[in-house]
């Protein structure tokens, strides 16, 4: 339908330069967005850690909050330094094993709760 547009070498070079700069600007904007998101996650994890320490939830709760905070800080630092953070491991695998470990009494209680809700 439409034929190829004929362009001289100067126009072709200018178009290539424009495309490279456009791609670089998009990448920089994406990195800035990811860095802002990581900083927000880091701050939220720090708040959760402070709440766990002040709330007296126990050592296990504080340890979990501290682990989440350390992971958030590490992710933020990696993005800030221009490195790609490692993908997070999937947590649902743990939830599936926990459901399989239910005792018959727990299963009966769950069935009774569902019957009462109907």
Layout of helices and strands:
Layout: H1 9-55, H2 59-80, H3 92-100, H4 104-117
What report would you give on this structure?
The protein has 118 residues and is an all-alpha fold. The protein has a domain at 14-86. Helices cover 78% and strands 0% of the residues. The chain has helices spanning 9-55, 59-80, 92-100, 104-117. Helix 1 packs antiparallel against helix 2. The protein is rod-shaped, with a radius of gyration of 26 Å. Residues 91-104 have low confidence and may be disordered.
Shape: rod-shaped
Cα-based radius of gyration, to the nearest Å: 26 Å
Number of helical segments with 4 or more residues:
4
Which whole number gives the mean pLDDT? 79
H/E series: HHHH
Low-confidence stretches: 91-104
Helix content range of the residues, please? over 70%
Structural class: mainly alpha
Task: Characterize the largest beta sheet: strand count, sense, and whether it forms a barrel.
Answer: none
Distance between the termini: 64 Å
Q: How many distinct beta strands?
A: 0
Measured by DSSP, the beta-strand proportion falls in under 5%
Brief account:
The N and C termini lie far apart (64 Å). The protein has four helices and no strands.
């Amino acid at each position: 339908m439409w034929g190829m547009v004929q362009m001289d070498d100067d126009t072709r070079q200018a178009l290539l330069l424009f495309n490279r700069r456009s791609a670089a600007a998009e990448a920089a904007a994406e990195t800035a967005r990811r860095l802002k998101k990581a900083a927000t996650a880091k701050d939220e994890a720090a708040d959760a850690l402070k709440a766990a320490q002040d709330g007296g939830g126990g050592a296990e709760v504080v340890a979990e909050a501290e682990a989440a905070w350390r992971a958030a800080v590490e992710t933020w630092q990696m993005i800030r330094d221009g490195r790609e953070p490692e993908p997070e491991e999937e947590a649902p695998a743990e939830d599936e094993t926990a459901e399989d470990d239910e005792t018959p009494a727990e299963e009966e209680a769950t069935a009774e709760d569902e019957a009462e809700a109907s």
